[in-house]
TrEMBL record:
The lineage of its organism: Eukaryota, Fungi, Dikarya, Ascomycota, Pezizomycotina. This is Tannase and feruloyl esterase family protein. InterPro entries: NAD(P)-bd_dom_sf, PRISE-like_Rossmann-fold. Gene3D superfamilies: NAD(P)-binding Rossmann-like Domain. SUPFAM superfamilies: NAD(P)-binding Rossmann-fold domains (SSF51735).
Amino acid sequence: MSENHAIVFGASGLIGWAMVDQLLAPYPAPGTFASITAVANRPIDLGEAHWPEPEAGRRPDLRLVSGVDLRGDAGALADTLRRQVPNADKITHVYYFVFTSVGSDLEEEVAVNKKMLQNVIDGVSSLSQSLKFVVFPGGTRGYGIYVPGGTFTAPLTEDMVNNLPEDYAKTVAYPQFRNVLTEACRGKSWTWCEICPDAIIGFTPNGSQFSLALHWAQYLSLYAYNHGISPRAQGTDKGGDKAAVVEVPFPGVTAGYESLCSPVSASTIAQLAIYAGQHPDRCGDGRLFNIADADAPTKMRDLWPRLAAWFGLVGVGPEARSDTEPLPSEYVERYQGVFGEHGLDKAVKGGVGAGRKQLDSVGTWLTFDRQLSLDRLRAAGFEERRDPIEGWLKAFEKFREAGLIL
């Protein structure tokens, strides 16, 4: 058994939950880590976290620390960790999966998120002289996809991030994260890398602000139920109840249905984060790695029918939508009482929050090719691959298990 101690900030989020899950699996093999500290701002009941159960001699020890606000100062954070984390002085790997939205002022958002990362690095560095590696996730926002039509011509390669237009770059936190880590590790023995996903597909036990998988899962679950397809007839990728054919159009436009993209399951991101920390010679020195489930891009045309089929529905392409036809978030809001009628209060309280309107627009906004090149990732030796649909369907299964959908 190694003495590696991983601390995961943002453990209640999409990537953070998967990070703890994969560390406990244990990935890639027993003995990679001796202990894990899962840190979250939102309270988590460990009994309802849906992580693997402890297994003596095989899985690392797990410590959960909830209610930690990173927006204070590094000293206060260090004191909290010193009090609540056994062997805080032995932390070897920091997995930082935290991001907070602050409203419409994007430059303020950058400043707030930069300060939180600075607090974490300063706080952990003051406690542990054993630190080896730090990982944080960027994203395709750093490739300029918030500009209508995109900024660069796909496939997107890691060197493009250095050529963002200045006015846009100052609204993105990732360049500031790189500055923080570059300065903090200067002259130190630890190093770091950045992971860049596009759409992240995964599970969280308490819902999520920006989970496209949960957003669509709740929508499709209610849509199927309201069209006479019982939950018992759902839960496969085979088309569900064949007694009736219920079509559900893709919530977007044809260009969004046909554009190339590179979705990734949160567990794949977590596996790369673990791999990177075990191979600092290949992955350190501030390297940036695109990540996706498969080398070849896909389209919503390929995914949507299979997502709908899990709920017993027939997924079809976009259709002209009237002004009175509800968007997915409006549909869920209108019918979420059905969850309560079935005793799924958690589905009402733990759905998608502030990000639901943005998620409604995915099919109408992301209408351009934005696939990622994985050449640098493969050159670094990371070879994990999976069918892009797999992460979606596993997330659906976990949502049902957690009572977040019918």
